[in-house]
Amino acid sequence: MKEWNEKQLVETRLIQHLQEMGYAYVHGPSLDAERKSGLEIVLTERLSKAVLRLNPWISENNLSKVVRSITHIDAVNLMEANEKFHNMLVNYISVQQDLGKGKKGQTIRLIDFDKPDNNEFLVVDQFSVKGGEEKGIRPDLILFINGLPLVLIECKSPMVSIDEQIGRAVKQMLRYQKNYEHLFHYNQILIATSNDRAKAGTIMAQLQHYGEWKDPYPLTNPEVGNNPTPQDILVAGMLSKINLLDLIQNFIVFEPEGGRVIKKLARYQQFRAVGKAINRILSAKDSRDRGGVVWHTQGSGKSLTMLYLAVKLRRIEELRNPTIVIVTDRKDLDNQITNTFRRCGFANPQQADGVRNLKKLLLQGPGATIMTLVQKFQIDKEEGRFPELSTASNIIVMIDESHRSQYKGLAMNMRTAMPNACYLGFTGTPIDKEDKSTTRTFGSYIDKYTIQQAVDDGATVPIFYEARMTNMHVEGETLDQLFDRKFREYDAKTRERIQEKYANEEAIIASPKRIEQIVLDLIKHYEEHIQPNGFKAQIVAVSRDAAATYKEKMDELSDLESAVIYSSTNDDDDHKKRFAISKDEEKVLIERFKKPLEEDKLAFLIVCDKLLTGFDAPIEQVMYLDKPLKEHNLLQAVARTNRTYNGKDYGLIVDYFGVSSFLEKALDIFSKDDIQGALMPIESELPRLQTRHRAAMRFFDYIRRDDLESCIQILEPENVRNEFDHLFKQFAKSMDMVMPNPLAQPYVNDLGFLGKIRQAAKSRYKVEGMDISDLGEKVRQLIADHLRASNVEILHDPIDILSSKFESHVNQFQGEAKASEMEHAIKHEIRIKLEENPVYYTSLRERLKKIIDARKQKQMDIFEMMKKMQDIIDDMRNTAKQGESLGLAKEQYPFFLMLEKQLPEEKDKEALKVLTEVITEKIQELAVIEWTQKDDVKREMRKQTKRQLRVFKCPEDKLESLTVQLVDLGRIHYKK
After folding, report:
1. For 147-188, where are the E strands, in sequence order?
2. 258, 300, 372, 862: which has the fewest Cβ within 10 Å?
3. Which of 3-7, 130-134, 593-597 comes out lowest in average pLDDT?
4. What is the DSSP letter of 196?
């Protein structure tokens, strides 16, 4: 049944889809004739033919050099090899050759990116790969372009647990990367699919970094087919010949982060936005209609979208090597985006360091990439107006956070300087209903990626808000009315200044007494809700003075480490000067804040204006807000908590100011659709919590709660267990979100009850991973307390079947329960020991299967079944003695059994014993520290092992696979 599910429902469907898109299908084993061995990953004959076809002038000698440079990449690790190969693929290879005008560097193309049909596209199943530490693998599907294995696809059955489908595929591909590194030197995209779910990622990526591909752009869903599945949409959107080559050439970057390099592949909304922007630039009838606005919600990768667009613009011939200008309105954003371009290897981005320097850069002519602040478009007092610097039409200006500063004089100066440029606005918040100037300035929306879409895709987490200590709230509107009444004769600017002074004098907001009460509440909230799961927090104060008071109170009332970050001036009083820091100190604090809590105890950053926009710290889960924020500022500030992080299901805004009381008004300027899901009250999780609670509880509706054995038996079938586990995790996730809020109280006992059953099922059925370690700390603690209160001793690891305690453990049970404990204990032992002695434990697995089948068919009663299982347990306990009887060490016995099984024609046990000793001695001789990570040592081991097998007259067809299996046993038994 599994074969049917995976093969027919997923793999065959995918192959047929690719064939419809022009790929040729080849069954893997039929390619063996083209390869010297299973160690050869690149189809060198096909690669040579393609290189010759695309570069017909190449000499034979240079052709050999090119192929060798691909098959022998010199690199210290997988990521370096992958980046080097990607560079060869996209930026081409240079060789010295004389084409009639003397010997000089010539460019070699491996792929024709401009004409996809000039390349050979193959989809291959069952392609065998050797050379790892196992007996070899056969990935489900590999896509070859011109003989290069560029895409690997792992298929999983849609019948597997929903939570496991993609997870298992990703785990498998990570294992492949560890053991068969050379296969992944060439990989550009990894895909995990079960047809009902499909996600793509890159090498070394963990599960949370794989993303769905929800838009088959430039196709629409109906064009893909009737009711297309997620797999159909991903295949159409990513693997069509044109899109795949486009993704490889323009949408992959290697970015250094935290001391390592991360390979990043565009998400579907980034690919779509770039495609639509270029389409508009190239097809607009009037050059003034080329611009527009890209709204991609904060946290969804806007800077990288701008980078991908810049990369692609550079390659478009019609644009004649355009000048690209990136404009921001804040120094930190300017630095951030410049660094992103530099880190990702974009050629020579130039950062304007002043008004004069900007003018000089804009006069360079085509091909420059200029990063600048909009403030640098200032008028020189002597000039009177900003000069026209270039009338070229192939200037593309990208403006970040385009709603903010683009409608003042500076924007006009920018347009005076470059009157024929194309202007593209990028924003992380939507355009408001009243704002006619954004669309008038740039044009209509090019692409939208809303807050709700980002949450649905898992690109960001949802943000909840909670009002606390309402008696402390400062109602923003009433304050405004008070000032408007009292000082209405003054102009707006003066009124604002008086209001600030008045508020400070009256100490309404920054009153130390009020802040002290808030800090006491805030510490309690952080310690109960946020700290247990390892996340960090930001406090937003109304002024620098208030921020300094918050810092003093935090130090006075708690041991939690905090830091205050604000800009200081020479006029500051002693109170504010006390916490003044330099730019370098600020950088250090921000880096510390981004680290995991167990690594760095800095848990709070206290700010007033800084770090409310463009600040990216995924570990931040909560913002304690004590400042009036509205409109774009509110949306931008709260989005600091929406970044994804391991174990983080939501961001939280805790409101002490009273923003939530006029939240609707604060966001009223946006259309309802655009801000759907922007901020949700914590109570909005309640209906979902109720639904999830019912779904998890229904498994045990007709069983007494004190009958643990019956509850465990309900979960014996694997599919039922998988479904329950998925629903339990959903319920636990909602509880972790709501606890310790009193709203969660009615469900606490049921969560403990379900956690107890789940833990008991894990113990009985020896299920890996089905424990409480993957739940939030609050939920873990609650379940652990419940287990202790119930005197349930299943918190411990399963008792080893070979331990003397096993007998007394199993004798606690009677009849079916006892048989079930024995059966699953044997299965667990086989599973964990299979690698150590594959021949022996495979034979035991077959024995156990026969016993279970006989019992199911009523060919034996429960007592006979238990007796036969006891025989298997006794057998397991005697394995060491079996080796000793032959005069072999415990570690050598699995080698002997392997040779005995693979060489059945050899009846002389003494000869097999001698061969075992020779091979294991050789392996031990060569085994240096960490040899399992050293390819040269493993290669020598295989060579020596093969030599001994040849002397022993091992059949040629078994030589390769037996060598790999024996060296793999060496990895298990002689690892150093």
Report:
1. 148-155
2. 258
3. 3-7
4. S
In this prediction, residues 471-481 reach a mean pLDDT of 49
Locus of tokens 């779910």: 197
Dihedral-angle region of residue 611 (phi above 0 means left; psi in -120 to 50 means alpha; beta otherwise) = left
CA dihedral 750, 755, 758, 759 (to 10 degrees): -150
In this predicted model, what pLDDT tens digit does every residue of 831-844 receive, in sequence order?
777 788 888 888 88
Q: How confident is the model at residue 130 (pLDDT cuts 50, 70, 90)?
A: confident
Q: How far is residue 760's CA from residue 790's CA, in Å, rounded to a whole number? A: 12
Structure tokens at 309: 């667009």
Q: Which of 392, 385, 388 is nearest to 368 (CA)?
A: 392
Joined tokens for residue 150: 């560029």
Burial of 853 by CB count in 10 Å (0-12 exposed, 13-18 middle, 19+ buried)?
exposed
In angstroms, how far is the first alpha carbon of the chain from the final one? Answer: 41
* For the chain, counts of helices (H) and of strands (E): 38, 24
* Rounded Cα gap, residues 22 and 245, in angstroms: 14
How does pLDDT run across 776-810, given as a tens digit for each residue? 666 666 666 655 555 444 333 445 666 666 676 67
Which stretch of DSSP H or E encloses residue 749?
Answer: helix 748-765
356-369 burial: b if 16+ Cβ within 10 Å, else e: eebbebbeeeeebb
The residue behind tokens 């091992």 is 954
Residue 253 pairs in a beta bridge with 264
Q: In this structure, which amino acid lies at residue 907? A: K
CA-CA distance, 56 to 605, in Å (whole number)?
61
Q: Let me know: does 473 contact 467? Beta carbons within 8 Å.
A: yes
**936's tokens:** 């040269």
Helix (H) or strand (E) holding 976: none
DSSP 431-484: PPTT--HHHHHH-SEEEEE-HHHHHHHTSB--EEEEE--GGG---HHHHHHHHH
Give me the mean pLDDT over the 41-54 stretch. 96
User: What does the alpha-carbon distance between residue 557 and residue 570 come to, in Å, rounded to a whole number?
Assistant: 30
Tell me the C-alpha distance between 442 and 407, whole Å: 11
| Range of lowest pLDDT (331-345, 353-367, 497-511) | 497-511
Element (H, E) at 938: helix 935-951
Neighbours of 653 (CB within 10 A): 25
- Would you tell me how many other CB atoms lie within 10 Å of the CB of residue 292? 21
Is the distance from CB of 483 to CB of 498 less than 8 angstroms? yes
Average pLDDT value for the chain: 83
Note if the pTM is more than 0.90: no
> What is the distance between the alpha carbons of residues 841 and 824, in angstroms, rounded to a whole number?
15
Say whether the peptide bond before residue 349 is cis (omega within 30 degrees of 0): no
> DSSP label at 258?
T
* φ/ψ (deg, to 5) at 190: -110, 135
DSSP structure class, residue 191 = E
CB atoms within 10 A of CB 90: 17
**Per-residue pLDDT averaged across 327-350, rounded?**
84
Q: Are 62 and 95 in contact (CB under 8 A)?
A: yes
> Which are the contacts of 646, defined by CB distance < 8 A and separation ≥ 6?
208
